[in-house]
Amino acid sequence: MTEKRNIFLIGPMGAGKSTIGRHLAQQLSMEFYDSDQEIEKRTGVDVSWIFDIEGELGFRKREQKIISEIIDKRGIVLSTGGGSILSREIRNKLSSRGVVIYLETSVEKQLVRTKKNKQRPLLQVDNTSIQTVLEELAFHRNPLYQSIADITIRMNDRSIKAIVFYIIRLLNNF
């Protein structure tokens, strides 16, 4: 990969986008951005607080604005929020401005990775099981992830290092 193209990681919460993104950026000597962290940095509050005060719609507006700004940069790795692909505008921009990598994971893996995390607003449910919420999100979002993915990586039990090097190999042939 001689020219440093933007790399955009998409997928559901708990897929490993932030972790893989940081390691991938480090290996490729690229700048790393996490859209949720950028929102928190710019607002001074965490994502859960924004959801509580502004609702999901308010959060999505902020997310769309920040992602639109970040993807104008060159030679970056961006880990997007799981719901960012709900915006047609964001899907179009991601597709046209870099390589989109979908980190596909099962609901079972998501449950393991998210069960102790109280910072995920969509999982703060009263009368619904977290598994049901994740299954519903997957039903609606997985087709959107698939529709814009240039590369799909099935997240399994491989190490972070193995996944990162696999992605780099795929990018070199892309």
Fourth-tier CATH superfamily name: P-loop containing nucleotide triphosphate hydrolases
Specify the structural class: alpha/beta
Number of domains: 1
Output the strand order for the largest sheet.
2-3-1-4-5
Structure described in brief:
The chain is an alpha/beta fold and 174 residues long. It is built from 7 helices and 5 strands; from the N terminus they run E-H-E-H-H-E-H-E-H-H-E-H. It has one domain: 3-Layer(aba) Sandwich (Rossmann fold).
Could you explain how this protein is built, in words?
One of its GO terms (cellular component) is cytosol. GO terms for molecular function: ATP binding; magnesium ion binding; shikimate kinase activity. Catalyzes the specific phosphorylation of the 3-hydroxyl group of shikimic acid using ATP as a cosubstrate. The chain has 174 residues and is α/β, with parallel strands linked by helices. It has one domain: 3-Layer(aba) Sandwich (Rossmann fold), CATH 3.40.50. The protein has seven helices and five strands. The protein has a five-stranded parallel β-sheet, sandwiched between helices. Helix 1 packs across helix 7, helix 2 crosses helix 3 and helix 5 crosses helix 6. The longest helix is centred in the middle third of the chain and has 24 residues. The protein is globular. It starts with 6 loop residues before the first strand and ends with a helix.
SSE blueprint:
Elements: E1 7-10, H1 17-28, E2 31-34, H2 35-43, H3 47-70, E3 76-79, H4 88-97, E4 99-104, H5 107-114, H6 130-148, E5 151-154, H7 160-172
Parallel strand pairs: 1-3, 1-4, 2-3, 4-5
